[in-house]
Amino acid sequence: MLNIKFIKSTMRLLGLTGQDLAGQCDVSKEAVSNWLSGESIPRPSKLALLATNLKVSIDQLLLVDNLGPAEPVIAYRMRNNRALTEPAKEAGDEVGRHLRQLLPFTGVDSIFTPRHLELPTLDADYIAKAAKATRVSLGLSPIEAVTHKHLISLFHSFGALLVPVFWGGNKDGHENAMSVYLPDSKASLVLFNMGCRLDDFSYWLAHEFGHCLTLHALRGQEGETFAEQFAQQLLFPDIVAKHALAEIRVSPSPLSIASRFAGSYGVSVVAVVKAADRVAEAAGEKKTDLATGSFFGQWKRSSKTALTAAQELFGTSTPSPVEFIVKSEQLFRTPIFRAMARWQRDEGGRNPAFISAAFNLNMGDAVAMSYALWDLTD
Description:
Blueprint: H1 4-14, H2 18-25, H3 29-37, H4 44-54, H5 58-61, E1 73-75, H6 86-102, H7 124-137, H8 148-158, E2 161-165, E3 177-182, E4 187-193, H9 198-213, H10 220-235, H11 238-250, H12 254-265, H13 269-282, H14 293-301, H15 309-314, H16 321-332, H17 336-347, H18 352-359, H19 363-374
Parallel strand pairs: 2-4
Antiparallel strand pairs: 1-3, 3-4
Helix pairs in contact: 2-3, 6-18, 7-10, 8-9, 9-10, 11-12, 11-13, 12-13, 18-19
């Protein structure tokens, strides 16, 4: 929050008007008026100009008891439930802080709190009920498949901003998706990797929607457990898992049954086997015996040839930056790329470093993206 009283006092001492300050900071008179009324705060580059022209430090411009908005809340899912590494946390925090700066350029107002779960818990019945209610909101029966379009519509209804990225091939751990929640604006942004396996794509979207539904009230491992169980119940609920288990029991080719269910519901065969084993265990019955080391090894090896989300939705596994932006806007109705283009224009030049930090891209991809965004016009 700006120290408005100090700023006005300093302006009087220097004999500066709002019009003077607007010219020195290269903004409109209305922007300065909004700063001085507390309706908005300058972006970092403008804050630095303000400090320079008032001949004070940036710290002096900010109230000591509130030096800025609350830190972004980042949802991670590390491989095999490993503890969050410091580099991963730092990268996620950077993503959150940079995406926050794009919000004013998205044209999206977040004056209302999204409809969310008030008191989320890890109770299995509660999570199943939340998933069932979500299915009802989509107009689906308990056994109908949830499609990518359904999931995208959920994010739009919720008010989350989708941030499709291309991080290359299928990643381990949390590198296929990330959720960012900004407590000060109650804005949710979801990054997801278009290079992941197609049979995992719905899972990652459903998982991140679980984080959105709680407004990140559950954090760390609790948050991941909730999101994972929610995704399972949304995409492949227990009633479907029981049907799959019954067919697997009597089939001479149980793995083919699991694969058929996986294809019908747009999930991986691993998800089907785990769900079938879960309901078997809950009923006190013998598991399927399909979840062997060789089964998981074969599934992982198949990732080298598995269809990716980009191949299915974009028609190529290596879209150009322009293709990626245009098709992402069409498919996901996201304003994030236009916002980044406007931000670059407002800053007066391409900024690959900012793009790299905001989208968690390597610098080479960020440079290519910066050129594509620079040519993007409204």
